[in-house]
Every structure is written in C-alpha cells, then in structure tokens.
Design brief:
The complex is a heterodimer of chains A (126) and B (479). Chain A has a single domain, classed as 3-Layer(aba) Sandwich (Rossmann fold). Chain A has 5 helices and 5 strands. Chain A has helices at 13-25, 36-45, 62-71, 94-98, 115-125; strands at residues 5-9, 29-33, 50-54, 80-84, 107-110. In chain A, helix 1 packs across helix 5. The radius of gyration of chain A is 13 Å and the shape is globular. By secondary structure, chain B is an alpha/beta fold. Chain B folds into 4 domains: 7-139, 3-Layer(aba) Sandwich (Rossmann fold); 145-245, Beta-Lactamase (2-Layer Sandwich); 249-324; 326-479, Heat Shock Protein 90 (2-Layer Sandwich), CATH 3.30.565. Chain B contains 13 helices and 17 strands. Chain B has helices at residues 15-27, 38-48, 64-74, 89-97, 110-143, 162-168, 180-183, 187-197, 247-282, 291-322, 333-350, 370-387, 445-455, and strands at residues 7-11, 31-35, 52-56, 80-85, 102-106, 147-151, 157-160, 208-213, 220-230, 236-245, 328-331, 354-359, 366-369, 393-401, 404-411, 459-464, 470-477. The mean pLDDT of chain B is 87. Classes of the chains: A alpha/beta (126), B alpha/beta (479). Chain A binds chain B through residues 12-15, 17-19, 21-22, 25, 56, 85-90, 92-96, 99, 111-116, and chain B through 264-265, 268-277, 279-280, 283, 285-286, 304-305, 308, 311-313, 315-316, 319, 325-326, 336, 339-340, 342-343, 370-371, 374-375, 378-379, 382.
Chain lengths: 126, 479
C-alpha cells in the first residue's frame, strides 16, 4: 500500500517543518503549503488523504479553507484537523469550535500543538 | 453669620413710639435708625440697607402700605414687620399678604416687640441661608464637568446642568419638565432611573450603568450613577443621575486588550514552532540523543509550555475584561460543566484521582457568556487536579437554591493557609510551599474565575483548612 499523503497548511514555516518531520518519521508522505490559497491549490493538484490546517493564516484563513472543502462534493470526505488559535483555555474543548461554524473540521487541536496528539489524530482519521 | 449688630429701621410718624422702640431694641444690642414718614423711610432703606424694617401703617406723606410696596419692589428680599392699631388689624393682614413678615398691634409690650423682631430676623437669616445654599449648589452643579440630571417623583426633569445639556445637544428649555424617558436616549439609564424612582434597594454597583454616545471609534462612554432623594419620612421624592465620562479609560482598556492580544499571539506562534521542534528533537527524530540531552529538551518544553499557558490566561483575562469572549445568552450550566469535564477527565485519571460529579436536573438558566463560564469550571477543577495529590478526591456539585445556582468544587488536597485565602484571587499570586514547588502555574486562574463571577453578578467564596482540602463555592443569580 502506498504511503498516505498528508498536507500541512500553516504560515509558520518552522511549525510546518516540525509537523512534517514528526509525521514523516511515522511513515507519512507530507506536503506543505504556507497560506490558505496555496493550500486549496495544492489540494486540487493532488488530493491528500488528510489536511492539517492552521486557523490564522494570510489570504484565506483555516475556517474559510475548511468551509470550502466541506462544501465541495469532491473534497468533503478529506478529514481536516484544524489547529485553533492561541488563547482561550476553552479552545481545547469542542464547544467553542462548533459555535458559529457551519462546516466543522473533523478534529481540533489548540496551539501550541502537541505533535504526538496530532499524529494520533491523523492515525485515527485516515 | 456676621457679628456686626443687626440694623433695624423704624418708620413711624410718632416720635414717642420711635423713641420707645429705639430704647427697647437698643438695649438688646440692635442698631436702630429711624424715619418719620414713608418717603424718608425709603431714603433710609437706600442709604443704610437695614436687616429689618418696622413700619407704622398710618402715616402722613406716604403711608405704610405704599412705603412697603415701593421698598419691596426695589429690595425684594427686605424683611418687614408692620405696626398697627387694633382698628386697622385687617390692614395688617393685608400687609402680610403683600409680603410683610409679621405684625405688631399697638399698644405692645417691650417683650412682645423683642419677640416679634427676633422672629422676623431669624426668618430673614434662614431665608438668606437657603438662598445662599441654593445658589452655591446651583453653581457647584453647573460648574461640574459631569453631566447631572435631577428628576421629580413623576420622572420629570427639574434640573439639567450645562455638561448634560451639552452631551444631549439640547437646550435647557426643551428638557426641564419633560419625562426623563424623553430626555435621555439610553435604555440602560432609563432602567436605572426607573428602578431608583421605584425606591428599589440596590447595591451601589447596581445603581450604576454604562452607556455610549455614538457608534464609531469616537464614541463617548459614560458611567452613570443614579441615586434617590428622600424626604423626612424616607419616601423617594426624586432621583439624580450623574454622568461620568469614562471614554479615556475605555480607550485605554481597549488599547491594553489589543496590546495583550497582539503580544500573546506573537509570542505563542513562535513558541508553538519551537515546541514542535523540541518535541521532534526529544523523540530522536533528528538523530539519537544522550539521556541528559533528552532530559534537558523535555525540561525546555515544559518551561515553554509555562509561557504558553501564561499567554493563554492573559489572553483570556483581557478578552473577558473587554467583553470579547463571546455573546451573552441564557446558559444551561449542566451541559457546559459536562463539556469542561471532557477535557479534565484525562488529567485527573493520569493522577489516579477520583472526580465525583453531581449535577441537579432541571436547573434554571443563568445569563452569561458560555466561554467565560467554561473558564470558571476549567480553572477551578483544573486547579483541584493540579494541586491535589495523586489518588486524591475531587468533587463537583451543581444545584439550585432559591433564585441562585450553586457550583461547588472541592478537593482533599493540601488546602490553602488562612492568611493566603484572600490573596489567591489576586493576579499572579500563587501559594508557594515546598510541596507545590514543582507545579507550574500562571497565577491567573483564580483571577479569571473571580472576574467572570463578578461579571455574572455572582459570589465566590473559599473555605479551606491546611491539610483538609479546599472548597470553592460559586453562586450565580438565575436569569
């Protein structure tokens, strides 16, 4: 079976690198994009098995990208892990994330992210 | 009151009477000046400004009535006592209707004269005091930079100072006599005044409200305090609303919140990247590490997590203070508690602690912001887990009593010494003991809890004995 392909979209180069290293070490093939638009283009170019998506990004933020994916018949099935904004202790509960979101991501991880947690969720969702 | 002798003008055509009065009142320390007819009397009033005039009604040249009429027209505050014979008592009554303070019927005894004069002077002094006090109060209110609105028991405006008129962009004529509902455009202020006029017993902080003039960035913000006026029987006879311009504070607060948010974001983003890299490094994904190196990398991660936690708490606090945490709504607390417990179950389990939860059913809602209430539960239970020993017992109870909802979070941990129990709610205060030295914390958790409970008009209390655990009790008014 071919390697699973995960796309990581975040404007922080170092964080993208860190997530890529971690997932790479676990046998995933990792693609990288650095803003929302680039992320969407990359998805259209090569369909990933899962997307790790940052919320706060230039051009298109993570919520917008997620909504576009979940509204599209073609990409609706791709699991999305959203890296939520820094801040509220509550952002580690699902309550606030659902609030105001029409199309939910599949999982949420609050920044600063625990890479092992991300890897666990990737394994669960793929 | 001045120490100089009171000056009394006696206007009477009979020299005998003038002399008698002069003698009697002179003994009592008054300064007496005299005139033999009305015309001369008017000249004396103009020249000597007496404190009181005693005037005979029956006089040649100009009689007492006409004298009084002219004198009062020129000196509206002039005090006077008319002297009259029994035959002209009705004239005396007439004179008093015209504004004389009292009358004295001839013949009179010295004691009667002194009594009437004393009474008239006392009344004059009182009237003057009231007039000075009125003018002083008026000047004070008009000079204030705070807007002041006074309403009568019917809610009609009886006083609006220039600062308020300026704020309302209205003229005094268009405001006085109008119902306050038409004078002030702000619903908050109307409610506050209505409650004050109804005589509702209120805590000082509840007789206050905040209102805003304008919608854009230049909006003015006011803190409005309302207070009732009472009569001698303690009935409400009106209310005052004082408008305090807090725009500058409000702006500062916004700048502070923006600043904290920006700083916290800009710190946490690189922190997240570095933490991720350290995690990879620690796992040996970039090559194997010596044991000492692994320990160091783990320690570095822990310390960075501390900074991240601090940023999170600072952000939370600034959001709560700015009212930017979320929308206020009627909250059903039990599901929110369960939501928070989903996050907390893991850490409690990891320490082998039991977490007993008792949620009453059918609880009334509370008016508040869901995210803020979640923060209360997360911080209280999070602290209990953090500071209670492995295998400890933690409990959470939610129930209603009367019109209040009660949330209790208790543990059987080390407790908090009595002298620290007030301080724990202050920002950055942490109870330091040799036992908890290894526990990291931001010192903001309970400050956040306190702030949220205050926002919800609730009460927060702590009961603890060293060695016997802690019990935090939050009571919130039902919506």
């Amino acid at each position: 079976m071919a390697e699973k392909y995960v796309l990581v979209v975040d404007d922080d180069l170092d964080l993208v690198e860190a997530i890529a290293t971690n997932l790479g070490a676990r046998g995933y093939e990792v693609g990288k994009a650095y803003d929302g638009e680039e992320g969407l283009e990359s998805i259209k170019e090569r369909r990933p098995d899962l997307v790790v998506l940052d919320v706060m990004m230039p051009k298109k933020d993570g919520y917008q990208v997620c909504e576009e994916l979940k509204n599209s018949d073609e990409f609706r099935d791709i699991p999305v892990i959203l890296l939520t904004a820094v801040g509220s202790a509550v952002s580690s509960t699902s309550y606030t994330h659902r609030d105001g979101m029409t199309n939910e991501a599949d999982e949420y991880v609050a920044k600063p992210v625990d890479l092992d947690r991300v890897a666990e969720l990737v394994a669960e969702l793929i | 009151m001045s120490q100089t002798a009171r000056r009394i003008l006696v206007v009477d055509d009979e020299q005998r009477v003038r002399q008698a009065i002069e003698r009697v009142l002179g003994e009592s320390g008054y300064e007496i000046i005299t005139a033999s007819d009305g015309r001369q009397g008017l000249e004396m009033v103009a020249a000597h400004a007496p404190d009181l005039v005693l005037v005979d009604l029956m006089m040649p040249v100009m009689d007492g009535m006409e004298f009084l009429d002219q004198a009062r027209r020129r000196y509206p505050g002039l005090s006077s006592v008319v002297i009259t014979g029994f035959a002209t008592l009705d004239k005396a009554v007439e004179a008093m209707k015209q504004g004389a303070d009292d009358f004295l019927a001839k013949p009179f005894k010295p004691r009667e004269l002194k009594l009437v004069v004393e009474r008239a002077l006392k009344r004059a002094a009182t009237l003057q005091d009231i007039s000075i006090e009125k003018s002083r109060t008026r000047a004070l209110i008009n000079a204030m930079s705070n807007g002041v609105l006074v309403v009568n028991p019917d809610g009609e405006a009886v006083l609006a100072n220039p600062a308020l008129l300026n704020l309302l962009e209205r003229k005094e004529e268009g405001v006085i006599g109008q119902p306050y509902q038409e004078v002030v455009p702000w619903a908050e202020v109307k409610m506050c005044l209505a409650a004050t006029l109804r005589g509702e017993e209120r805590k000082p902080e509840q007789a206050r409200c905040v209102c805003r003039q304008g919608d854009d960035e230049d909006a003015l913000h006011f803190q409005v305090s309302c207070a009732p006026f009472h009569d001698a029987r303690n009935a409400v006879v009106g209310a005052v609303a004082v408008f305090d311009d807090v725009t500058a504070w409000h702006r500062l607060d916004q700048y502070k919140s923006q600043f904290v948010t920006t700083v916290a974001h800009d710190i946490v983003s690189p922190l997240a990247a570095v933490q991720g890299q350290l995690q990879n490094l620690g796992k040996g994904l970039l090559g194997p590490l010596e044991e000492a190196q692994t320990v160091l990398v783990e320690r570095a991660r822990t310390r960075l997590q501390g900074v991240a936690d601090l940023c999170r708490d600072l952000l939370d606090l600034s959001k709560i203070e700015a009212g930017a945490m979320g929308q206020q709504s009627r909250l059903d607390l039990a599901p929110l508690v369960q939501e928070a417990l989903k996050v907390l179950g893991g850490p409690a389990e990891a320490k082998g602690q039991s977490l007993a939860v008792e949620l009453a059913s059918g609880l009334p809602p509370v008016l508040g912001v869901a995210e803020e209430f979640l923060d209360v539960v997360l911080n209280l239970v999070g602290n209990a887990i953090k500071y209670t020993q492995d295998g400890g017992e933690i409990s959470l109870r939610l129930w209603a009593e009367g019109s209040e909802l009660l949330l209790e979070v208790a543990d059987n941990g080390p407790g908090i010494p009595p002298e620290e129990q007030d301080a724990v709610f202050k920002r950055f205060h942490r109870v330091r003991t040799p036992e908890n030295r290894h526990i990291t914390g931001t010192g903001l958790g309970l400050a956040i809890v306190k702030r949220v409970v205050d926002n919800l008009h609730g009460k927060l209390s702590l009961r603890s004995q060293p060695g016997q655990g802690c019990r935090f009790l939050v009571s919130l008014p039902a919506a």
